[in-house]
Amino acid sequence: MTISISQSLDARNLSCPMPIVKTAIAIKTLASGDVLEVSATDPGSVKDFDAWSKITGNELIESDVQDGVFRFVLRKK
Amino acid sequence: MDEPLAISLFSGTDDKLQAAAVLTAGAAAVGRPVHIFLQYWGLDAFRANGAPRERLLAPEAGPEGLAAVEALATAGQASWHDTLAQAKEIGEVDIQACSLSMDLLRLGPDDLDPLVDGVEGVTAFWLAASEGQVLFI
């Protein structure tokens, strides 16, 4: 099953905690079940997106890295 | 997770203001209410329409620390002020000026940055802190 991305957020070159802050702002505009894709270069973001997902209940569906860019796919609770 | 976080922000150097803003934004992003109590030089940094301040750092920063902070700012790192403004956008962040520090700095409510929500005494701070964690920065 392919995942349909509702919105993409470019958080590359932003320092901690801005990738998470921008994600929290973006997800407010989405409906439950919508999927948000985020790209980031902050080295702390792998652990941060995992933690944010666990605490807020927004599901982290995918997490990968390519050429130094982290990509996170989240489904809104 | 909705355990409240209370911060006494005493320091007015840019590095400590940035650290407080980062902790606040992170807490707001996970749904924790944050209550910031501005005391002394922390309050001094929240003057409205103040003249642009020279960048101030904690003494341990030294010239190399200042250069590193300047480089990150030039690379586009959000300022502590912007970080706090965005934290307010995503969560419950209440910023209150300590009334004793208002007297000390001879400030009135109109002298405060719009990020400041009000003025309170220490008893109101402890009520807001309730059973949550308290940080002194």
What does this structure look like?
- Chain A has 77 residues and is of the alpha+beta class.
- Chain A has a single domain, classed as 2-Layer Sandwich (Translation Initiation Factor IF3).
- Helices cover 30% and strands 34% of the residues of chain A.
- In chain A, strand 3 and strand 4 form a beta hairpin.
- Chain A is globular, with a radius of gyration of 11 Å.
- Chain B contains 6 helices and 5 strands, in the order E-H-E-H-H-H-E-H-E-H-E.
- In chain B, helix 1 packs parallel to helix 4.
- The two termini of chain B are 23 Å apart.
- Chain B is globular, with a radius of gyration of 15 Å.
- Chain B is α/β, with parallel strands linked by helices and 137 residues long.
- Chains A and B meet through helix 1 and helix 2 of A and helix 1 and helix 4 of B.
Pick out its properties.
heterodimer; A: 77 residues; alpha+beta; Translation Initiation Factor IF3; four-stranded mixed sheet; 2 helices; globular; B: 137 residues; alpha/beta; Hypothetical Protein Ychn, Chain: A; five-stranded parallel sheet; 6 helices; 43% helix
Chain-wise SSE layout:
The complex is a heterodimer of chains A (77) and B (137).
Chain A: E1 7-11, H1 18-28, E2 35-40, H2 45-56, E3 59-66, E4 69-75
Parallel strand pairs in A: 1-2
Antiparallel strand pairs in A: 2-4, 3-4
Chain B: E1 5-9, H1 14-29, E2 34-38, H2 40-44, H3 62-74, H4 80-90, E3 93-98, H5 99-104, E4 118-120, H6 122-129, E5 133-136
Just give the CATH class of chain B. Answer: Alpha Beta
Low-confidence spans of chain B = none
Q: What is the CATH architecture term of chain A?
A: 2-Layer Sandwich
Uncertain runs of chain A with pLDDT below 50, 5 residues or more? none
**CATH topology (level 3) name of chain A:** Translation Initiation Factor IF3
Number of strands of chain A: 4
Structural class of chain A: alpha+beta
CATH class wording of chain A:
Alpha Beta
Q: Would you tell me the structural class of the helices and strands of chain B? A: alpha/beta
Please give the count of helices of chain A. 2
User: Could you name the CATH homologous superfamily of chain B?
Assistant: DsrEFH-like
**Average predicted local confidence, pLDDT of chain B:** 94
Proportion of residues in β-strands of chain A: 25-35%
Which word captures the global form of chain B? globular
Q: Could you give the order of the helices and strands of chain A?
A: EHEHEE
